[in-house]
C-alpha cells in the first residue's frame, strides 16, 4: 500500500549566528542548543526573511519546471524499482507525486556527534548491512536564485538496524570495545548533486537508538577537492541537517527483522528533542515516500527537497576521518568548515558560494 504525502521544500537556516554556545547534552554527547533570547531572536529574523524568499521561489517558473521534471523522474524510478520486484501494478503519477510544491522552513539544529570526514564518494552505501531497502532522493535548491544547486557534494549517513554508526568508537554506539568499527564505512557516503540539484542514495531504512527518533544526517559541501582515492577534501559546508520519517512507516519497519531484534529503547517522533526543534511552527523535515510493493519489505522510495542559502557557510565538528590507512578518531577540539577541513570559518572573508560549483568534472583533482 502506497503512503502518500504532500510535496514540500525544506529550507535550512545555514547561519553560524544560530550556533550559540549555550547548550545541553543529549544522548551520545550530542549538543542541543539552548533556546536563549538571542538565539530565538535570530531564528525569528531568519524565518521572516526566508519566508519571503520561499514565496518567490514557489511562484517562479523555474520551480514549476523543476517540479515537472521531479514528478517524471520519481515516477520512472518507482516503476523501474517495482518492475525489478515483479510488481505489475503501475503507480498513479498524479496521485503519488502531485504538482503542488509547498515551501516549508527548517531551523538550524545540531549536526549530531558522528560525522566522519573523507567518506567514499558513492551512491550505494549498504555494503553488507541487512534491512529494508531505501532509495532516497535529496534535492538541493538555492533559496536566493530558486535554482537547483549542481555539484554540491552531499554527505549522507545514518545508523544500522541495531542503532550503530560505522566509523566511530564511542560509548553509546554499540560495543565500544570493538575498535575495528573505526575502520568501517557502512551506511556512509557522499555524492554530487546533478543538474536538477538531486543526490540519490541506495541504503537501508535506518534503525533507532536510545533517546533519538529514526533519522538521517546530511551535510552539503562545495568548492572542495576530489581526491584520487574517490574521497572529497576541503571546501565549505553550506548545510547540515537531519531528516525524518513518518511515524507509521517507522512502526511498520520496526516490526520486521532485523529491526525487531534491536533492544534499545524506541523514541517516537513526538518525543525527540531535536525533531521538536526542526518541526517547530511551519517546519517539516520529513521525507515523502511510497512503498515499492505491498509491504515495507519490498522497499521504500523516499524524497525531499532542501533549500539552502549558498552565501553562508557553517563550522562543522568531525568525530573522525577516513584515511588511506583506515579510520582515525578526532580529538574533541577538531572543527572544519566542511569536507576534510581547510578554508576559513564563516565571517572570515570566505565570501560564500559564487554560483560556480558546477558538476563533478568542475571539481579539482588532488593527491591522497
From TrEMBL:
Record InterPro entries: Intradiol_dOase_C, Intradiol_dOase_core
Endpoints of the signal sequence: 1-26
Keywords, comma-separated and alphabetical: Signal
Bias kind Gly residues: ranges: 338-358
Residue ranges, annotated region (Disordered): 332-368
Boundaries of every Intradiol ring-cleavage dioxygenases domain copy: 113-213
CDD domains in UniProt: intradiol_dioxygenase_like
GO MF annotation, one: oxidoreductase activity, acting on single donors with incorporation of molecular oxygen, incorporation of two atoms of oxygen
Low complexity composition bias: residue spans: 359-368
Protein name, as recorded: LYR motif containing protein 1
UniProt lineage: Eukaryota, Sar, Stramenopiles, Oomycota, Peronosporomycetes
Amino acid at each position: 500500500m502506497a503512503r502518500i504525502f504532500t510535496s514540500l521544500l525544506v529550507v535550512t537556516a545555514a547561519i553560524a549566528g544560530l550556533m550559540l554556545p549555550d547548550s545541553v547534552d543529549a544522548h551520545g554527547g550530542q549538543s542541543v542548543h539552548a533556546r536563549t533570547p538571542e538565539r530565538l531572536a535570530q531564528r525569528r529574523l531568519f524565518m521572516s526573511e526566508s519566508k519571503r524568499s520561499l514565496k518567490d521561489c514557489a511562484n517562479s517558473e523555474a520551480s514549476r519546471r523543476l517540479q515537472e521534471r521531479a514528478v517524471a523522474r520519481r515516477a520512472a524510478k518507482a516503476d523501474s524499482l517495482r518492475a525489478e520486484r515483479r510488481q505489475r501494478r503501475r503507480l498513479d503519477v498524479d496521485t503519488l507525486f502531485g504538482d503542488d510544491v509547498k515551501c516549508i522552513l527548517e531551523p538550524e539544529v545540531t549536526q549530531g556527534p558522528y560525522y566522519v570526514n573523507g567518506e567514499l564518494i558513492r551512491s550505494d552505501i549498504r555494503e553488507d548491512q541487512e534491512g529494508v531497502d531505501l532509495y532516497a532522493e535529496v534535492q538541493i535548491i538555492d533559496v536566493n536564485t530558486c535554482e537547483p544547486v549542481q555539484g554540491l557534494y552531499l554527505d549522507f549517513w545514518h545508523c544500522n538496524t541495531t542503532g550503530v554508526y560505522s566509523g566511530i568508537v564511542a560509548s553509546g554506539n554499540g560495543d565500544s570495545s570493538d575498535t575495528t568499527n573505526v575502520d568501517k564505512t557502512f551506511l556512509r557516503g557522499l555524492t554530487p548533486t546533478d543538474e536538477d540539484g538531486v543526490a540519490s542514495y541506495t541504503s537501508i531504512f535506518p534503525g533507532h537508538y536510545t533517546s533519538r527518533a529514526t533519522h538521517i544526517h546530511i551535510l552539503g559541501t562545495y568548492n572542495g577537492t576530489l581526491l584520487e582515492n574517490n574521497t572529497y577534501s576541503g571546501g565549505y559546508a553550506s548545510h547540515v541537517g537531519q531528516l525524518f520519517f513518518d511515524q507509521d512507516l517507522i512502526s511498520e519497519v520496526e516490526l520486521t527483522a532485523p529491526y525487531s531484534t534491536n533492544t534499545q529503547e524506541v523514541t517516537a517522533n513526538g518525543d525527540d528533542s531535536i525533531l521538536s526543534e526542526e518541526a517547530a511552527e511551519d517546519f517539516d523535515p520529513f521525507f515523502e515516500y511510497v512503498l515499492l510493493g505491498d509491504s515495507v519489505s519490498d522497499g521504500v522510495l523516499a524524497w525531499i527537497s532542501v533549500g539552502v542559502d549558498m552565501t553562508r557557510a557553517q563550522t562543522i565538528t568531525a568525530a573522525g576521518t577516513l584515511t588511506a590507512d583506515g579510520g582515525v578518531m578526532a580529538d574533541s577540539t577538531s572543527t572544519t568548515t566542511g569536507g576534510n577541513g581547510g578554508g576559513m570559518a564563516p565571517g572570515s572573508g570566505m565570501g560564500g558560494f559564487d554560483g560556480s560549483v558546477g558538476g563533478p568534472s568542475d571539481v579539482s583533482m588532488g593527491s591522497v
